[in-house]
Amino acid sequence: MLPKTHPLSTPTLIALIYLLCCDLILWVCVWAVLLRLDGEGSLDIWDLWAFRTISWALLCAVSTLVADNSVHSLLKRWVALLSFLPAVFDSVQTMLPGTVRGFSPVPDPGMVILSSATSTIVYMVLEMAFPRGGSAKGARNQKKDEEAKALLKRVIWYSRPDYFHLGTAFLFLSLAALFETFIPYSVGKVIDLLSGKYQHNNFLWAVGLMALCSLGSSMFGGLRGGMFMCSLSRLNKRIRHMLFQNLMKQEINFFEENKPGSLTSRLISDTDKMGRSVAMNVNVLLRSLVKTCGMLYFMLGLSWQLTLLTCIEMPVLAFIQNSYNNFSQKTSREIQDCNAEIANLASSVIGSIKTVRSCKAEAQEQRRYEQALNNKLQLLKRKGIYSAVHLLIRRFITLGLRVAMLFQGRNLISSGQLSSGSLLAFVLYQKDMVTNMKQLVYIYGDMLNTVGSAVKVFQLLDRKPQMREAEDLAPEKLTGRLTFENVTFSYSARPDNKALESVNLELSPGKVTALVGPSGGGKTSCVCLLQRFYEPQEGEVLLDGEPLYRYQHNYFHQKVAMVSQDPVLFSGSVRHNIEYGLEDCSFERVKEAARKANAHQFICNLEQGYDTDVGECGDQLSAGQKQCIALARALIRKPQILILDEATSHMDGSTQQAIQDVLNNITDQTVLVVAHRLETVEKAHHIIFMEDGKVVEEGTHQQLMADQNGRYYRLKEKLFNTEPQPAE
Q1: How far apart are CA 381 and CA 387, in angstroms?
Q2: If you compute the radius of gyration of the chain from its CA atoms, what whole number of angstroms results?
Q3: What is the pLDDT, as a whole number, of residue 461?
Q4: What is the mean pLDDT of residues 299-328?
Q5: What is the rounded distance in angstroms from the CA atom of residue 515 to the CA atom of residue 697?
Q6: Residues 626 and 601 in one domain
Q7: Looking at 1-15, 266-280, 369-383, 702-716, which range is the least confident one?
Q8: What does DSSP assign to residue 675?
Q9: In angstroms, rounded to a whole number, what is the distance separating the alpha carbons of residues 300 and 433?
Q10: Which residues contact 186 (CB under 8 A, 6 or more apart)?
Q11: Phi and psi at residue 507, in whole multiples of 5°?
Q12: Residue-level pLDDT at 134
């Protein structure tokens, strides 16, 4: 059963019928009184408005008697429409040229019924398509609309730098709409001249007017489209740059929690939708709005009766379109999520194709990808079915009202109130009017939809890094003493699992410190904290006695360099990868760093030397060559703190020895080595043994080996038993 306050509930319908009868009685009573007074039963415009105002007051009073407060509140819109719609149409008619007449309270019983039916239909559509926030669902929908409108305003705010381009586009849009509006009018004039006595001059004038309107519409329409496309391109560039810039500021945790495919989708697809919501949709919205106003003026001038009949179609189609838009918005969001999932899945598989192939997981990944495609296909099928049903209902209503309009038009032609050419012009206007009204409803919903799809873009634009912002400390002299003071740290994905617990250690300048221990002991976590990829939950990491966040970002990463076990190279030349992140770096500096990393010789043997493209992620090079280039990339910066995380594990024996010679000649740099090679660990000035996130032992190799019950001594055979073989 429908709730009492629903526009189709039984109490509401009973109240509607009762009030409609009261209104008809008022019409007849006033008409009878006027006939007795003046014998004509006519009113002027001011008398008509006064009569309808009195009718509105009386109907409001009657509604309080026949319905309770909840239903009475629901009927306010309908009473206002019923009372003032005839007066509004008659008033507009008097503004049209060549119309001078008095107004009868009952000029035509059919038009009175048509007016009442129109008021009722408009009321039903307004109440059902745009309910007031009386229910929880209505309140939620209203809140969503308000949020979408706020987002739309923000997208428009981002378009402020393009005010000149948009203003020019709006000017061309108005001119194009103006010329296009005159085309049906000129066509009607041509038909009237052909159906009557042929007059050559008048015919040429009418054809010339039609040609001029067509030419103006085409020319200004093209200029309008070009300016809007230019504005769209500028807006897309600006938003993408802002988003990419903000993404680069986020902490490492953010990129671990958000998959690259999803972020790429937001950066490319969603930003494009944001641009279209302003440039393309506003283009169509304003064009349709200007054309609708112009066509409504001409339609009222041709026949206000046919215009009133046309107005019945619009709210019905608006209700149907609004219902379809609500479903379409929901489905579009689901399709958008599917697209992001498909892109992420393809990106992860293609980026890890070696692992997939080595594990014989091609079939499994194909099934996953096919399942994702099937999910999207189901959504598209459902959207297609709803679209077909929506189109069928809409066209059935349009055809039915078109037939009714033609019957009414025939009656007007028979009575001499309308010519054949005017009827043709009206039909053309009516077709364009309905199309524009559908566009107005659809574009508004699509604008909210496209802006809604950009919610995540705005979230990314507004997101602030969860780490403390780097300050501006940049001393000329940096000693390089690193200290962990009671550092406790856990990853956001595993907050209850402490990767480090109350760690205290110190790295001294001029010394090589080796960090050793079993896997999962906390070595990599220490390295990540030293690079300020994360921040500890407790304690502090100090550099020369100052917390890391106090140092200026560029200065800190200029002084701290790291080479990992599996370094990342970027698509481009060898030289580009060595000087990556540096400006105005000379070729001599590049070669000097390559020599220190024992990479110069194999680079020169490449086909194009330092200009050789390393391929996607360095796939054209061996693992050892990639480590050499990554080491050169670190050494070219002349860092005060050098971190080597298994940085020589894939190098051949001669290269490892060359790197060991570099470490042996360390004078003032702070070097941290995470290694499993016995030679590297033995020659370190200081060894820190970590296990279960804690510092278990520390000292020189001789000191730790002296304690035969120590963890370092007991695990030495497991850790350093076999020297890893260099990669081919």
Answers
A1: 10
A2: 39
A3: 85
A4: 72
A5: 11
A6: yes
A7: 1-15
A8: -
A9: 12
A10: 206, 209, 210, 213
A11: -110, 125
A12: 45
- Domain residues for the domain of 196 are 130-462
CB atoms near residue 257 (< 10 Å): 11
Amino acid, single-letter form, for residue 35: L
DSSP secondary structure string for all residues of 450-474: HHHHTHHHHHHHHPPPSSPPP--B-
Residue 725 lies in a domain: no
Q: Is the same domain home to 277 and 374? A: yes
Encode pLDDT of 336-386 as tens digits. 888 888 888 888 888 888 888 777 788 888 888 889 889 889 888 888 888
Residue type, 412: L
CB 508 within 8 A of CB 686: yes
Half-sphere exposure of 58 (CA within 13 A, CB side): 18
Let me know if residue 726 belongs to a domain.
no
Q: Mark out the alpha helices in 585-688 (DSSP H runs).
A: 587-596, 600-604, 623-635, 653-664, 678-682
CA 229, chain centre distance (Å): 18
* Residue 199: half-sphere exposure toward Cβ, Cα within 13 Å: 10
- pLDDT for the residue numbered 723: 47
Percent of the chain scoring above 70 in pLDDT: 72
**What's the pLDDT tens digit per position in 612-626?**
888 777 778 888 888
Task: Yes or no: say if 559 and 631 are a contact pair by the CB < 8 Å rule.
Answer: no
Q: How crowded is the C-beta side of 683, counted as CA atoms within 13 Å?
A: 16
pLDDT at 68: 58
pLDDT at 488: 92
Specify the residue for token string 């059902």: 128
